[in-house]
Design brief:
- The relative contact order is 0.09.
- 40% of the residues lie in helices and 29% in strands.
- By secondary structure, the protein is of the alpha+beta class.
- The protein contains two helices and four strands.
- The N and C termini lie far apart (76 Å).
- Strands 1-2-3-4 form a four-stranded antiparallel sheet, with helices on one face.
Length: 111
């Protein structure tokens, strides 16, 4: 391959990458400097991996927390409760995991 063809290919690739970055910059400016996906009413508070393909996620919507189970091709609401505070723990367990464990233990005590 001649050096001119390689140079032309590299310049074209650089131009395309530059256009992509400029487009992303322009979209960010049009959005008011906020990143996409974080400006809505939903916020993921925490999550817990059950297996490689299944998760439990705590979602905040306004003043409500929704616990959602996520599996391949399926999302189910497990529980809905008023917004609260997650207590920080000093153990190696994540706060959401510890909170979920406490809720499960309370539910088992009531049954």
């Amino acid at each position: 391959m001649p050096a001119a063809a390689i140079l032309e290919m590299l310049l074209g690739l650089t131009l395309i990458i530059g256009i992509l970055f400029f487009g992303a910059y322009l979209l960010r400016k049009l959005n008011g400097g906020r990143s996409f996906g974080n400006s809505g009413p939903l916020r993921v508070v925490g999550g817990l991996m059950i297996s490689t393909r299944e998760r439990i996620v705590l979602i905040e919507v306004g003043d409500t927390w929704i616990i959602v189970g996520i599996a391949p091709g399926q999302i189910k609401t497990l529980h809905t409760l008023p917004k609260g505070e997650l207590a920080a723990s000093n153990s190696g367990e994540k706060p959401f995991g510890q909170w979920l464990k406490q809720i499960s233990e309370r539910k088992n005590e009531n049954n």
